Amino acid sequence: MYYRASKAKRRLARSSMHQSQPVAFDPARPGTRNVDWLAALEGEPLWSPAPGPLLIVSPHPDDEVLAAGGLMRKWSERGHAVIVLSVTDGEAAHPGWRGLGDIRQEELERALATLCSRPIRTVRLAMPDGGVRMKLTELLCALRKQCESAPTLVAPFEADGHPDHEAVALACLTVADDLRLAIVRYPIWAWHHAQPADFVGRRWGRFPLDAKTRAIKRAAMSCFSSQLDSRAARTPIVPRHVLEYFQRDYEAFLV
Question: What's residue 96's pLDDT?
Fold first, then answer.
């Protein structure tokens, strides 16, 4: 479905890129239970993109697979073009881990190869992890270039709680509005820190996943060992209770 932002909303979105504050949450602690989300999303309509290319816009390597790995696989199987726009390399996830950005891009390559037999093209922008807001002009330019084929945009949720996610989301909304493109948005951290009541009045769409697709998606997610394993006695960036949100028999998008 086409999500159109009003001019006033676009101005607010651009302003909030510079003024909004990240949500304070600790992924190591249990957040909103997945069973509560399942109950809230039960009965929401099934959704599928219109036939044609997909542009999956990912703030950090792993966001695209967690949120839309099943969609990417099924869409590629149907012969449609799928492109991943990888905005940052995620190098700030573990401060002091030299070369982490390259490691995370290698993990992404393995994950995408696990997901799909057809190659998925990745466009790597290598913007600074945690500093996307400072690169908005470059990001908007890159988005417009990748939208020449009029894809459906699959973007982060604009109130996800992470500054990079929100900056990327609002840039995507701006480009979708300018070019009149279809756009859907995916939560990542909002599953953890938000409540179903926060989404009252928003429209959800569920993309169903069969058992084989779910199993392959789990294998692809396991490629991101830098985020799933503890390092130097740290809690994993994506602990097991967070992974549960992405192991459902559907992927949920705001449409």
Answer: 87
Residues in Cβ contact with 88 at an 8 Å cutoff, skipping those fewer than 6 apart: 59, 60, 101, 125, 126, 127, 128, 129, 130, 132, 164
Residues 6 or more apart from 119 whose CB is under 8 A from it?
none
By the 8 A CB rule, do 224 and 107 touch? yes
With a pLDDT cut of 90, the percent of the chain lying above it is: 84
pLDDT tens digit sequence for 85-95 = 999 999 999 98
Please give the domain boundaries of the chain with CATH numbers for all domains. 31-254 (3.40.50.10320)
